Amino acid sequence: MAEMKLTVLMDNNTYIDRYYLGEPAACYLLETGERTILLDTGYSACTLENARRMGGDLSRVTDIVLSHGHDDHTGGLLPFLSAFPQPVRLFAHPDAFLPKRFDGRSVGVPFDPAALPAHAELRLSRGPAELAPGVLFLGEIPRTNPLEAPPVGETLRGGTWEPDRLLDDTALALATKSGLFLLTGCSHAGICNMLQYALSLTGETRVAGVLGGLHLFESGPQLDFVLARLAQLGAKTLYPCHCTSLAVKHALCGAFDVHEVGVGLTLAL
Ligand SMILES: [Fe+2]
Ligand SMILES: [Fe+2]
Fold first, then answer.
1. What are the beta bridge partners of residue 38?
2. What is the predicted pLDDT for the residue at 126?
3. What's the average pLDDT block by block, 10 residues per block, for the chain (269 residues)?
């Protein structure tokens, strides 16, 4: 099984005494033997500056995956494509490019997909897609657990604004020697929905870890459900970040092996 290296290029958190840039956004670099993959692109060109400070070579990126269309995950895409001219495959759910708004503010992909340069080969997919051996784009996540995945803002579909259920929200399932490692953007689809679906798609039963935003902020029935269901699914090691509040991290710490995430974190998977 190929080993992979995961690097957090952008997150809300920066580590003490490590001088990278933070922003309320997400970008992860995944290096496999065959492909070099970005999951999300951050909010701005700051992601590129972080990679430069880390000595990372983004000219080797072969694939970009958009976890969903929100601008804190897609705003760095055009700066990346302007700076790096190599051909890249760009994976996303078709709904990722629908207009989105929250409290009257546009929060969708901040450019027209028609503006994508020719070296970005757009691959829209509602279903799963294997990017490389052991790297699976999950596509649309079945909403199995009704307590998860409340709508966020609105999306424009067929000329009508409707509550945005973020059907575009997805994640990467990584096959590691210790089991399935799930890499999420915001988990609008529900972290348990995602993990359950990833396990069923891959046939894996062991959960090596989960890293990413959980889109959880407060105590309540949804958090209670997540704490119980994640344990049922076999999750033990968690790297909650991005859109996960301190209160939720605190609750998770009581039940799981929780690690701090910040810009510059690297994991050998
Ligand atoms: Fe989001
Ligand atoms: Fe986000």
1. 29, 64
2. 98
3. 92 97 98 96 98 97 98 98 98 98 97 94 98 97 92 97 98 98 98 98 98 97 96 98 98 97 98
How many angstroms separate the alpha carbon of residue 51 from the centre of ligand 1? 22
Q: What is the pLDDT of residue 153?
A: 98
The angle formed by the CA atoms of residues 52, 58 and 63, to the nearest 5 degrees, is 150
Burial of 221 (0-12, 13-18, 19+ CB in 10 A): exposed
Report in angstroms the alpha-carbon separations of 227 from 69, 188, 215, 252: 27, 16, 14, 7
Report the separation in Å between the CA atom of 25 and the middle of ligand 2, taken as the mean of its atom positions. Answer: 6
Alpha helices in 108-181 (DSSP H): none
* pLDDT value for 146: 81
Helix or strand holding residue 38 (H, E): strand 36-39
Contact 35, 58 (CB under 8 A): no
Ligand 2 centroid – CA 17 distance (Å): 25
Q: Give the separation between CA 129 and CA 152, rounded to whole angstroms.
A: 26
Domain ranges of the chain: 5-268
**Which ligand is located closest to the Cα atom of residue 188?**
1
The string of DSSP codes covering 130-145 is EEETTEEE--SPP---
CA atoms of 87 and 19, how far apart (whole Å) = 31
Is the CATH code 3.30.70.20 the one for domain 5-268? no
Dist. CA 268–CA 172, nearest whole Å: 16
pTM recorded for the entire structure: 0.97
Query: 232's torsion region: left (phi>0), alpha (psi -120 to 50) or beta?
Result: alpha
Residue with tokens 């969708």: 108
Q: What is residue 188's predicted lDDT score, i.e. its pLDDT?
A: 98
Give the closest ligand to the alpha carbon of residue 166: 1
